[in-house]
C-alpha cells in the first residue's frame, strides 16, 4: 500500500470515529472490545494478532459457516427438505416454516447465511446428517480435520447448548481457521462465497404457497473495500460475535471476534473488525525470503565414483528437486520481523546413496515458529565401494 493510500485510509477511519492504527504502530489489547480476537493471514494460516485467541467461548451463529460448508460439500442442492416438528420449533431468528413444508436445500442455505435462520440450520442438519446429532458429529470431525482442536459443536445453529462433554464453543483462532477453510481450501469455496456475498435472496416453498425473503445482515460487506464474506452471531451467553474476511492488494485477512459486547453495544464488533483489518493492511507486507543459493556437494563415505582415484572422497550434488531460480517463498511480514533460515544437513553421507534420496531439509523460521520446510535431495547416485571396484581402480592406476 503506497503512502498516499495509507494516509487516506487512516484519515477515513479518523473521520468515522474509529481510532486509526498507523503503520508500524502496535495494537494493544485494551483497544479492542472483544474478550477474544484473532487476525489471521488467510494464505498461510499464520496468526498475525491475538487477544486471548485460544480461550474457549460460545460462538453463537458464527457456527453456521461450518453448517453451510458441510451442506455444500456433502449435500445435493436440488434435494427436497421436509420441515420436521423439531425444526419448526426453533426460536427466532427463524423462517417460521411449518412442519411438513418442503424446500430445496439450496434455498435453505441462503436463509441460513443471510437471515441466520435457526430453523433452516436444523432442516439442513437433518437432511445432510440424517439427524442433528449425526450432523454435529460431522461438524466436529471436520473441525478436527482442519486443525481445530478446541472447537466443540452441539448444535448446527449456534444456540447456547451444553452436554456431558462440554459447551457449544470454539476459540477465536479456531473460528478464523474454519472460515479460512471455507474460502481458501474447500472444493466448494466459490459456492460459499457466492451465497455469503448475496445482498438478498427470495424463494418459494416447494408447493408455491409461501414466499420467503432473505437480506444479508453482514454490514462489513459495505464497510471496507475488498470485504469478502463474514457471519455475525449473538446469544445471551456468547454476546456479539463475528468472523469475516477481506482481500486487498494481494493480502487476504480474516478477523474473528468472540464476546464482543452485549445488547446496546451492537457496533463494537464493527469497530474491532475495522481496527484489526487496518492493523493488518498497514503493518504487513509480502516479502520474498527464499534464499536462491547453491546447496553445494556432500561427501559420501565409502562411496565410489567413476573417474576418480581410489583415495578420492566421493561426493553427491545437493538439490531441491526443482529449478532454484523458479522457487519462491513470499511471506506476509511486519517490517520488524526477520526470517531465519536453517540448513539441516548431515556432515557427510554413507554409501550407497540413491539419486533423489532425501538427505536433509532447509527450514524457514520466524522466531521459533517453523513457517516453511523444503526437502533436500541427493542429485547423483553414489554406489558403495566393493572389492571389484577397488580392483578396477588399482588396475587403472597400474596401467597409467
Automatic annotation (TrEMBL):
SMART domains: PBP5_C. Its EC number is 3.4.16.4. Pathway: Cell wall biogenesis; peptidoglycan biosynthesis. Substrate binds at residue 231. One of its GO terms (biological process) is peptidoglycan biosynthetic process. It comes from the Bacteria. It is an enzyme of class 3 (hydrolase). It catalyses: Preferential cleavage: (Ac)2-L-Lys-D-Ala-|-D-Ala. Also transpeptidation of peptidyl-alanyl moieties that are N-acyl substituents of D-alanine. The active site is at 61 (acyl-ester intermediate), 64 (acyl-ester intermediate), 116. The keyword Hydrolase applies. Keywords: Carboxypeptidase, Cell shape, Cell wall biogenesis/degradation, Hydrolase, Peptidoglycan synthesis, Protease, Signal. One of its GO terms (molecular function) is serine-type D-Ala-D-Ala carboxypeptidase activity. Residues 284-384 form the Peptidase S11 D-Ala-D-Ala carboxypeptidase A C-terminal domain. Removes C-terminal D-alanyl residues from sugar-peptide cell wall precursors. PANTHER family: D-ALANYL-D-ALANINE CARBOXYPEPTIDASE, D-ALANYL-D-ALANINE CARBOXYPEPTIDASE DACB. Belongs to the peptidase S11 family. This is serine-type D-Ala-D-Ala carboxypeptidase. It comes from Blautia faecicola.
Amino acid at each position: 500500500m503506497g503512502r498516499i493510500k495509507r494516509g487516506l485510509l487512516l484519515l477515513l477511519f479518523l473521520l468515522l470515529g474509529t481510532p486509526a492504527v498507523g503503520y508500524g504502530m502496535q495494537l494493544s489489547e485494551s483497544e479492542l472490545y472483544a474478550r477474544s480476537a484473532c487476525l489471521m493471514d488467510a494464505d498461510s494460516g499464520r496468526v498475525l494478532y491475538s487477544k486471548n485467541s485460544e480461550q474457549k467461548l460460545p460462538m453463537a451463529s458464527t457456527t453456521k459457516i461450518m453448517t453451510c460448508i458441510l451442506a455444500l460439500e456433502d449435500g445435493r442442492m436440488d434435494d427436497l427438505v421436509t420441515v420436521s416438528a423439531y425444526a419448526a420449533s426453533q426460536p427466532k431468528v427463524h423462517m417460521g416454516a411449518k412442519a411438513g413444508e418442503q424446500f430445496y436445500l439450496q434455498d435453505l442455505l441462503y436463509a441460513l447465511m443471510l437471515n441466520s435462520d435457526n430453523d433452516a440450520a436444523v432442516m439442513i442438519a437433518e437432511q445432510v446428517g440424517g439427524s442433528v446429532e449425526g450432523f454435529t458429529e460431522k461438524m466436529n470431525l471436520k473441525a478436527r480435520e482442519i486443525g481445530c482442536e478446541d472447537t466443540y459443536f452441539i448444535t448446527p445453529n449456534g444456540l447456547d447448548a451444553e452436554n456431558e462433554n462440554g459447551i457449544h464453543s470454539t476459540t477465536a483462532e479456531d473460528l478464523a481457521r474454519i472460515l479460512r477453510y471455507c474460502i481458501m481450501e474447500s472444493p466448494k469455496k466459490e459456492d460459499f462465497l457466492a451465497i455469503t456475498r448475496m445482498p438478498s435472496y427470495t424463494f418459494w416453498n416447494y408447493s408455491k404457497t409461501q414466499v420467503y425473503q432473505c437480506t444479508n445482515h453482514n454490514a462489513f460487506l459495505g464497510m471496507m473495500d475488498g470485504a469478502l464474506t463474514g457471519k455475525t452471531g449473538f446469544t445471551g451467553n456468547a454476546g456479539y460475535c463475528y468472523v469475516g474476511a477481506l482481500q486487498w492488494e494481494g493480502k487476504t485477512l480474516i478477523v474473528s471476534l468472540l464476546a464482543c459486547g452485549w445488547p446496546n453495544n451492537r457496533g463494537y464488533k464493527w469497530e474491532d473488525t475495522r481496527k484489526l483489518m487496518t492493523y493488518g493492511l498497514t503493518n504487513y507486507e509480502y516479502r520474498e525470503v527464499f534464499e536462491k543459493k547453491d546447496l553445494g556437494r556432500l561427501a559420501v563415505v565409502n562411496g565410489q565414483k567413476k573417474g576418480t582415484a581410489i583415495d578420492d572422497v566421493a561426493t553427491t550434488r545437493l538439490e531441491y528437486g526443482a529449478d532454484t531460480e523458479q522457487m519462491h517463498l513470499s511471506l506476509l511480514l511486519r517490517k520488524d520481523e526477520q526470517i531465519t533460515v536453517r540448513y539441516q544437513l548431515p556432515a557427510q553421507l554413507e554409501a550407497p546413496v540413491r539419486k533423489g534420496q532425501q538427505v536433509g531439509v532447509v527450514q524457514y523460521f520466524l522466531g521459533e515458529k517453523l513457517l516453511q520446510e523444503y526437502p533436500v535431495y541427493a542429485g547423483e547416485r553414489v554406489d558403495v565401494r566393493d572389492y571389484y571396484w577397488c580392483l578396477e581402480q588399482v588396475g587403472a592406476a597400474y596401467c597409467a
